[in-house]
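Same chain as my last thread, 89 residues:
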Amino acid sequence: MPMNLDTIFLERCILTFEKGLMLFNQTKKTDIEHDLYRSACIKEFEIILEQSGKLLKKTLNPYFTCSSEVDQLEIILPMIMVSDLQKSL
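reply #2:
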């Protein structure tokens, strides 16, 4: 049975992150806007990570016998995703 997930908020967060990153890349490192956009991008990334985890949990829940098994994934997956991001920077 296919699951319909509401991804509108996640999509908006991704667009916000992309716009913030674009503006960040257009500023000089000495400008206050550089720090502002950097902080905004970090916060938006955290929100994207959180929303992705929630949507993934909703998707995986029917495949596990116990919801606590899915809850354990919430601890592991963000660490993997952040590690992958750090490797790409």
